[in-house]
Amino acid sequence: MRFSGENFVLLASVLFCVNGGENDIYSGHSLELTQSSNLARQELVQETCNRLSLNWNLDDLPPSLLEHILVDDEHKLLYCYVPKVACTNWKRILMILEGKWNDTDVLSVPASLAHSPGMFRNLSMVSMEERNIMLENYHKMIIVRNPFERLLSAYRNKLEGDLPSAKYFQDRVGRRIIKAFRENPSNESLEYGHDVTFKEFALFLTNKSKDLADIVNNEHWQPVTTLCHPCLIKYTLVGKYETLLDDSLLALHTINASHIQFPRLAHTSGTSEKLRKYFSQLDLPLIRKLYKLYKYDFKIFNYDLDNIVGYDLG
Fold first, then answer.
1. 177 FRET partner, CA 20 to 30 A, in 190, 209, 256, 307?
2. What's the whole-model pTM score?
3. pLDDT by residue (tens digit) across 10-31?
4. Burial grade of 261 (CB within 10 A; 0-12, 13-18, 19 or more)
5. What's the confidence (pLDDT) of residue 11?
6. How many helical (H) and strand (E) elements, i.e. helices and strands, does the chain have?
7. DSSP code at position 122
8. pLDDT at 165
C-alpha cells in the first residue's frame, strides 16, 4: 500500500495515541486497524477514479453541487453528508463542535434542528481561493453505504413509513409516482400516495420522465458520486455504514473531538436483511437499469450485487 506524507503522519499518531474521554475503550490498536482500512479505501477510490478518466474538474461544477459539503473551520473538517448514511448523527456532532448545542450527548439534539436550513456553512458559500485552501489543508470526510441498501432505506423511510417525514414525501412524491406508474389507481392512493410499491419506486427512478424530473433529483436517492464528487475531492476519511462506529471514532480522534461519544445503536433498521425480499419484486432488466444509475457508487466504493442477484453486474 502506498502512503502519502499526510497519511503517514495520521497513521503514526494513531499508533502511539489512545483516545481520551468517553472513547477510551477504543484502543490504539483498533485505531491502527481502522486507519489501515481507511487508507486502503482511499487508494481504491483513487485507482478507480483514475480508470474512469473523468474529463472535468471541480471548477466546472456550479456552486449548488457543493452544498452537501459542510465546513467546520475550527476542526479543519469538510464533511460531505449523504442522506440515509448516519448524516443526522454527524450533523448533530457538528452542531456540538460548533457550539450550537450546549450538551455533548449527541442524541439530545433534535433531528429536525440538525437538518434545519442554514444551520451549517457549506463549500458553495466560500470563494474559489478559500475552497482550494480548505481542500488542501482540511480533513475531508465521507461515509458511504451499499447503494441499493441506501436506496431501500430511503424508500422504506420516506414512502413506506408512517412518520411525519414519510407523510410529507407520500403527499409530494408518492401521489405523483402512483399517478404515473399505476394502472387504475384507487382514489385513496391518488389522494394520499401512501402505498407506493418498491417496483413503482424503481420505475420512477429509471424512467427519466421530464414531468417528474423535479422529484427524481432528490438528495435521499441521488448517487453519492453526484452529491460528494469523490473523483474530484480526495477524501482523507472514507467511512462505511458497515463499520460506522469504528470509522466515526477514527474521525473524532482525527479532528481532536474524542470527548464526543458517537451513538451506539442498540439495533439496526434491518434494511440490509430485507434487500432480497424487496429486490425480488423487480425483474433483472429493471435491476440492471437501477444498477446503471448507481454504477459509479458501486465501483468507486467497492460494492457488488452478490447479496441480491448472486453475482455482480459489473
1. 307
2. 0.89
3. 444 443 343 344 454 556 669 9
4. middle
5. 45
6. 17, 4
7. B
8. 84
